[in-house]
Amino acid sequence: MARRLVAPLLAVITTLGVVAAAPAHAADFTGAVKLDNCSGSLVRLPGSTPADQALVLTNGHCVELMKPGVVLTDVPANRDFTLLNGSGGQLATLRSTRIVYATMTSTDAALYRLDQTYRQLQQKHGGRALELSAARPVAQSEIRIVSGYWTKIYSCQVDAVVHQVREAKWTWQDSLRYTRPCDTIGGTSGSPIVDAASGKVVGVNNTGNESGGRCTMNNPCEVDATGEITVHKGIGYGQQTAGLVACFGPGSALDLTLPGCAVAKPQ
Questions:
Q1: Beta-carbon count within 10 A of 252 CB
Q2: pLDDT digit of tens for each residue in the chain (267 aa)?
Q3: Which end of the chain has fewer beta carbons closer than 10 Å to its terminal beta carbon, N or C?
Q4: Which CATH entry fits the domain spanning 3-253: 1.20.1640.10, 2.120.10.30, 2.40.10.120, 1.10.1530.10?
Q5: Nearest-angstrom CA–CA distance, 158 and 145
């Protein structure tokens, strides 16, 4: 959620995508979306069907800078997204009807539901969604961060899975620290983190330490299990999305009571 993931002074909404089954060297912008000041991606659950209403993934801070503990579910939301083709050109304008889930507590993620099904998007525009992986990424795995806002793909590795990342008043669990080549900037917020081997989405890009500050806005720090704080200037972070997969049932419907659903719940 730091400045490098937000446009100007506020968080930017980002959702991006890459070819779900493409080999690492063939990563492109299929499934990527551009928001007004963020990135994002057209995504589906492992059990989604062509008849399900399509979903777009981005950051919670791309919805709004929510207070810790706030969780939004099933909220009306009319928002436009620009769907990109494989080469980064504009393919279609998509529109949401609702925010399915959004929070900045424990993670920084949001899912919008669109007014079209996956089948309709495929038939009308040739749009293809990226699959959210139920498997958690591991250190040293190759990843691609695909920014629809900048039409830029970053290539690097997961440097480590961090116990906690803390930025100002927000704390995120089991965050992904990138190796230095993924020097994400403002506007890349909400970009999907795509596993290069499987082509599936394993996380959502959300922040980075801009100037070496300690646990402040735009300068997140790491907190280990003993409470020790470490700062990595210039390093970016993302949040895992595997935890969201267990929270959806038939029809790609959110059900926070499902076994294994461990994301933050509305208070």
A1: 22
A2: 643 444 433 333 233 333 333 445 467 999 999 999 999 999 999 999 999 999 999 999 999 999 999 999 999 999 999 999 999 999 999 999 999 999 999 999 999 999 999 999 999 999 899 999 999 999 999 999 999 999 999 999 999 999 999 999 999 999 999 999 999 999 999 999 999 999 999 999 999 999 999 999 999 999 999 999 999 999 999 999 999 999 999 999 999 999 999 999 998
A3: C
A4: 2.40.10.120
A5: 11
